[in-house]
Specification:
The complex is a heterodimer of chains A (about 190) and B (about 650). Chain A is an all-alpha fold. Helices cover about 85% and strands about 0% of the residues of chain A. In chain B, strands 1-2 form a two-stranded antiparallel sheet. The longest helix of chain B is centred in the N-terminal third of the chain and has 35 residues, at about 100-135. The chains are: A mainly alpha (about 190), B mainly alpha (about 650).
Chain lengths: ~190, ~650
């Protein structure tokens, strides 16, 4: 394939990935709408205001936002051809993402241990499903990231890997945006 | 200890789950028998390798399209058998044929199969077969994804038929309204079969939707601006945008229902704050657009056919496009008309009632455009054209009854009645299915090199349309008389039985029509030498007729440059001939990974339905590992050299 054809292939993939992200957006929108409807359906159990520890969630949020920034730094490294810088910042992104996930699991464990699991009320079902769906996406992102780091170490800057890295950037930023909505709607409004 | 081990290996599965009542057992054994027969034949004729190399691993959209159509045809026969049983039960009104539990399983299966595995399968089959060549492209945007989509569809198909052999199907109708579909009221595996078969096939549909949307936007031949696209491609663009917007809602909704049933959540339960109305809103926010996902491509097929067989340009191309876009957008603003009676209040009902009436306007525009296309045309009354004219009749009847139901006050009478059942069958049978039959007869010679027998085709058509009217007009009347849907028996003193018997006769006539269709295909293949035709048997207008018959894997040796709307028609008029300059073509290599991903999705589905933990883990891990293998392999294409293409193009038969 010549360069023009390769560019066309890449454009195609980028558009396809954008559209996938938009469909994912609708999936999240459905879950947000469900949460909005069921927010007050606590069935006599605890409400968001009783359960959420906003300082803790703020820490989670900051960690995820920072990981978006470090993804940006890694991609800047690609643009300049600095392999070490790219791998370093991808590693930092991985560490931050994994920390975020660990914190989220801690929060979930805490809730379940206190008898406020997903089967306690409709509100908690909606809460767990929405936040865990985001967490599941983060997990997929981490897996993707790990594979990319291994490939970068092994094959240097291979063209296809670089293109995938750009798509990964889109994915990670998208998850960040979704999390900002989770933070505002679930924790700030839902915690009132 | 032993019980624990058994649960670990088999989950909820018991030996008694394999025992069925005679009718279901017969159907299940029949299906297995046919499968074993097919496998035996493959072994006897040593065709396994051929099957694997040419079909299972193929990434050629034309072959994937054929497989979609094949699955849909088999499922159509299954759904038709279900319909026959339902009609027989209601016509005889005895308890000896079907008990109510079995009756409920059958109508749930009939609806789910006909929508998800017949209509959707046909739509994707036609997309795969026609869209790339109609836009002057060689392939779809993501060939491997296309194969994954198909095999997910196939996995869902197997899951929805499995209850015939093991377990039971849902009794909660084709949309499984809660709280009936919740664990409390449906403790068996039936609803789980429904959820996971639709979920797996639905994810395939979503991926396919994205694939064709990108294909249409990015792979059009140079010069083909949006307003020069064939109208079928426009309809597919509308349909795929609807898929992209609607199917994620289905994924989320089914997911939540599954979480309710598996993990004891309370989204839609009637206790602990759950909200069943939320489900009904969500499922129709997907479900109404779904109807248009199916019917828009049928509109596109009919538009191609009416223009071709009238020998004229399509009347009002621009208004057709605007109408398609209007329908695409409006279809998201009407979902509440499916439950006017469920307490939304007068204001909300009024809004959705008016939106529903408005959507009839663009649809009406299309009907007039089709009729005006025929006006003063040189109409050839071939089978596709007959299906088209039958469609105009049934679709107008169906459309008018739809407008009747859009009046909320009147809907309180029609809701959940057989009037509604008759209405949506008029739209889906008279719209989608007739469209599929028309398209089948129209494009069949392009892919086989011979036409279908016209005489048998016409007989099939007349049996179908007469049987269809005889079967469904009584349901309109019964609906007015107060017969609700899904009745396995009714009080004989109501005086309904006569009309139910008429409806049963109608379905029998439809079956004769189907018989003629099967005969038509068999006879046409037998006498194919007599029906042999060239590359352009109907004097076509769009680019798919410019390819070889059957089309080469690469469709076009040289990508055409488009200057006109009916490009192929204009070329024939101008006598367009240039000496082609062949270049190397890159095509995707075959890959078996798509089929294996489908297999792991099936394993996951079985595990999650029967609560077999190891199968769930195996299925998920399998899919993830295969995706990683595929995504990290770079060598996925092979080259067809310019010389080979020149050779192949020279051998194109010119009749």
């Amino acid at each position: 394939m010549n360069e023009i054809e390769e560019k066309a292939v890449q454009e195609k993939k980028t558009l396809g990935f954008w559209i996938y992200l938009m469909t994912d957006c609708i999936l999240f929108a459905s879950l947000f709408a469900t949460f909005a409807v069921l927010r007050t359906a606590t069935a006599g159990g605890p409400s968001g205001a009783d359960l959420f520890d906003l300082d803790f969630v703020l820490a989670e949020t900051m960690i995820l936002l920072a990981s978006s920034f470090t993804t940006g730094l890694a991609i800047l490294g690609v643009a300049r051809g600095f392999k070490k810088q790219t791998i370093f910042w991808l590693g930092v992104t991985f560490a931050l993402g994994a920390t975020f996930l660990a914190l989220e699991i801690t929060e979930f464990n805490h809730l379940v241990a206190e008898g406020n699991g997903w089967d306690r009320s409709a509100f908690l079902s909606a809460f767990f499903t929405l936040v865990a769906t985001h967490g599941l996406h983060i997990t997929v992102g981490l897996l993707w990231l790990a594979i990319m780091i291994i490939r970068l170490v092994r094959y240097n800057f291979k063209k296809t890997d670089l293109n995938r890295l750009a798509l990964f950037g889109l994915f990670w930023h998208f998850l960040d945006v979704v999390w900002i909505f989770v933070f505002s709607i679930v924790y700030l409004i839902g915690g009132m | 200890m032993f019980d624990g081990l058994k649960e670990l290996i088999f989950g909820k599965l018991e030996l008694s789950d394999f025992i069925h009542e005679p009718i279901m057992a017969g159907a299940g054994i029949g299906m297995l028998g046919a499968l074993f027969l097919a496998m035996g034949a493959l072994t006897y004729f040593k065709k396994w390798k051929w099957l694997w190399k040419n079909w299972i691993t193929t990434l050629d959209p034309k072959k994937i399209g054929v497989m979609y159509i094949l699955v849909s045809v088999i499922m159509l026969l299954r759904g038709l058998a279900d319909a026959l049983l339902l009609r027989a039960q209601q016509a005889t009104n005895t308890s000896e044929l079907l008990n109510s539990d079995h009756f409920q399983q059958i109508f749930s299966a009939h609806g789910s199969i006909m929508i998800f595995f017949v209509a959707m399968g046909i739509i994707f089959g036609v997309f795969n077969l026609i869209i790339p060549s109609q836009i002057g492209a060689r392939d779809v945007a993501f060939p491997f994804l296309n194969s994954v989509s198909f095999w997910l569809f196939a996995a869902g198909m197997i899951l929805i038929n499995a209850p015939l052999i093991v377990g039971e199907f849902s009794t909660a109708g084709w949309l499984a309204y809660p709280p009936l579909s919740e664990l409390q009221y449906s403790p068996g595996v039936g609803v789980d079969y429904w959820i996971w078969s639709l979920q797996i096939a639905g994810i395939g549909s979503l991926l396919s939707g994205i694939n064709f949307f990108v294909t249409i936007l990015k792979l059009r031949a140079p010069g083909m601006t949006l307003m020069k696209m064939p109208i079928f491609v426009w309809s597919a663009l509308g349909s795929t945008s609807l898929i992209m917007f609607a199917f994620p809602i289905l994924t989320a909704t089914l997911g939540m229902l599954a979480l309710d049933r598996m993990l004891g959540m309370h989204f839609f339960t009637s206790d602990m704050g759950g909200n069943p109305m939320l489900y009904i809103n969500l499922i129709w926010a997907w479900g109404h657009p779904e109807v248009y996902i199916l019917v828009l491509p049928a509109f596109g097929i009919f538009s191609e056919i009416v223009a071709t067989f009238s020998g004229k340009r399509l009347f009002g191309y621009k208004s057709m496009v605007i109408a398609l876009i209007a329908i695409t957008i409006l279809s998201f603003t009407v979902w509440l008309h499916h439950f006017f009676t469920m307490g939304a209040g007068a204001d909300v009902n009024t809004f959705f009632g008016i939106m529903t009436m408005i959507i009839a306007i663009p649809t009406g525009v299309k009907v007039f455009n089709w009729i005006f296309t025929m006006y003063r045309g040189r109409v050839r009354f071939t089978t596709p054209m007959l299906w088209f004219m039958g469609f105009i009749v049934t679709f107008t009847i169906g459309g008018l009854t739809g407008v009747l139901m859009s009046v909320p006050a009147a809907d309180f009478q029609f809701h959940n009645s057989l009037f509604l059942v008759a209405h949506f069958h008029t739209m889906i049978v008279g719209g989608v299915l007739f469209g599929a039959f028309a398209g089948f007869a129209y494009w069949f010679p392009k892919f086989t090199g011979f036409t279908l027998n016209e005489r048998l085709g016409k007989l099939a058509f007349w049996n179908w349309i007469i049987g269809f009217l005889v079967a469904f007009i009584p349901l309109y009347i019964l609906g007015f008389m107060g017969a609700t849907r899904r009745l396995d028996h009714y009080d004989p003193s109501l005086g309904w039985q006569g009309l139910f018997i008429v409806a049963g006769v109608g379905v029998a006539i439809i079956c004769v029509g189907v018989g003629f269709q099967v005969l038509q295909i068999a006879y046409s293949i037998w006498k194919r030498k007599e029906n042999r035709v060239g590359e352009d048997p109907w004097n076509g207008r769009t680019l798919e007729w410019a390819t070889a018959t059957p089309p080469k894997e690469y469709n076009f040796a040289v990508i055409p440059t488009v200057t006109e709307r009916d490009e192929f028609w204009e070329r024939k008029k101008k006598g367009h001939q240039v000496t082609p300059i062949y270049t190397d073509i890159w095509l995707p290599k075959n890959s078996g990974l798509g089929a294996i991903i489908g297999l792991f999705a099936l394993i996951f589905g079985i595990g999650v339905i029967w609560h077999i933990i190891w199968m769930i883990i195996l299925g998920v891990l399998g899919v993830i590992i295969l995706l990683i293998i595929r995504l990290t392999s770079d060598d996925t294409e092979y080259k067809v050299s310019a010389e080979e293409i020149a050779e192949q193009e020279l051998s194109r038969s010119v009749l």
